[in-house]
Specification:
Chain lengths: 319, 82
């Protein structure tokens, strides 16, 4: 086994809201905790424009600020974040081995809080124009579309929220919704104001079939109005895709029991089928995909991890 | 040797502070062009990087060679400032 610097009581995979909250609890109890993050601390919350429904912030809070605050609070108690991607997990009994881009690491307990990434549409043109007209992050790339026309694809909460955000830059947005609107009532009411102002046009029951452009840029989106059974073409300068999320579970190679969409199953202690491997946040089967619930699950997982470690204090770090 | 570093950013991008923190931790100073404040420089960012995204980090070395890093990409950023 490797030297002690690569061994920890707890390693958390991901540093989104779930893991950062868990880390606040574990480190406050002096449990040595390392978080491994492949992207940005704060996870999806960090790339979200505004979080309006996180309790304690009556006027909402910018995702970036919430993420920075969570990170600061976890670090205040001694959490360490290492920027590394975990590529595999191996249960070696009392120790769990993680292969990462910073080398192999060992932990008595692993918390998986890897959330999810944006799903791709999988249509012609999407890959060709990636970052040159096709985007997945409105807060990152929206500023390039000042005074331009945009298409947003998707009908869920994220698509609606991001379409409204993008009206800060774009002159007009066409929202392409494959079947019917799935966004919450509250968001749909908010959206209606933008529709009434002529800023957003909603195309229900319209699939997105191809993204077409010239050598340099996107020119239009070709879709199908499935009710009328006819092709539609919408001229645009760019396309933002928000068609759902794909669980970040590849690195587990199917070792952890999951549900039909790939979310990880746990018992009532948030522990998976591998003893000592816990799961919290959006990646957990039954998760409600909210920052508040991710944070709550993080806290619960931390307390259950403490109980688990107390029951396993026979494990000693090798010198 | 690094001569100077310029980062194109926006106010809402989560990966921009990550690049800035990384460079600061490595002891580098940089110029920042915030495209929300200077929208007329978007074309420049696009021409340099070929991508309509931020952050874009331009590392100019003493020999005037340039390394362009798109996004928060440590695999490219680390060698660019080495
Ligand atoms: C556009 C949008 C708007 C939203 N708006 C709201 C809102 O208004 N209110 C609300 O409550 N919720 C909102 N959500 C949902 C909220 O962002 C998530 O529920 C929350 O971020 C989940 O937290 P998490 O910690 O479980 O996962 P995430 O935030 O997804 O964090 C997981 C982290 O794990 C990292 N990771 C993944 N795999 C690996 C690996 N192999 N190695 C290392 N690191 C890894 C990822 O990079 C990521 O940083 C929104 C989501 C989106 C996409």
């Amino acid at each position: 086994m490797s030297d002690t610097k690569n061994k920890h009581d707890v390693i958390m995979v991901g540093a989104g809201p779930a893991a950062l909250s868990a880390a606040i609890y574990t480190t406050r109890e002096d449990i040595d905790t390392l978080l491994l993050e492949k992207g940005v601390p704060g996870g999806l919350a960090a790339v979200t424009d505004m979080v309006d429904n996180y309790p304690g912030f009556p006027d909402g809070i910018e995702g970036l600020t919430l993420a920075a605050n969570l990170q600061k609070q976890a670090e205040r108690f001694g959490a360490v974040i290492d920027f590394a991607e975990v590529s595999s997990l191996k249960d070696e009994g009392e120790w769990k081995k993680l292969e990462t881009t910073s080398g192999d690491m060992y932990a008595k307990v692993v918390l998986i809080a890897t959330g999810s990434d944006y799903k791709k549409l999988g249509v012609p043109g999407e890959a060709k124009y990636y970052a040159r007209g096709v985007h997945y992050c409105a807060t990152c790339d929206g500023a390039f579309y000042r005074d331009k026309r945009l298409v947003v694809v998707g009908g869920g909460n994220s698509a609606v929220q991001e379409a409204m955000f993008l009206t800060r830059f774009a002159t007009h947005i066409d929202l392409m919704v494959r079947s019917k609107m799935r966004a919450s009532e509250v968001l749909q009411q908010e959206l209606q104001k933008f529709v009434d102002d002529g800023k957003i046009t909603v195309h229900l029951a319209t699939t997105t079939d191809e993204i077409v452009g010239d050598e340099a840029k996107v020119l239009k989106v070709v879709g199908t109005d499935t009710k009328a059974g006819k092709q539609v073409e919408i001229e645009t300068d760019g396309v933002f895709v928000f068609v759902g999320l794909k669980p970040n579970n590849e690195f587990l190679n199917g070792q952890i029991d999951s549900d039909e969409i790939g979310l990880l199953k746990t018992d009532e202690n948030l522990m998976s089928n591998i003893p000592g491997v816990f799961v919290a946040g959006d990646i957990r089967s039954g998760a409600t995909m909210q920052v508040a619930s991710a944070v709550g699950e993080g806290a619960t997982a931390a307390l259950k991890i403490r109980e688990y470690l107390e029951g396993h204090h026979d494990i000693q770090l090798e010198a | 040797m690094v001569k100077n570093i310029t980062i194109f950013t926006t106010k809402t991008c989560a990966y921009c502070p990550m690049v800035k923190k990384y460079l600061a931790a490595k002891g580098f100073t940089y110029d920042e062009i915030n495209l929300d404040d200077e929208p007329h420089r978007r074309q420049e960012a696009l021409a340099i990087s070929g991508a309509m995204t931020v952050p874009v980090t331009v590392v100019t070395r003493q020999d005037e060679s340039q390394h362009i890093v798109v996004g928060y990409n440590l695999a490219k950023l680390a060698p660019a400032i080495a």
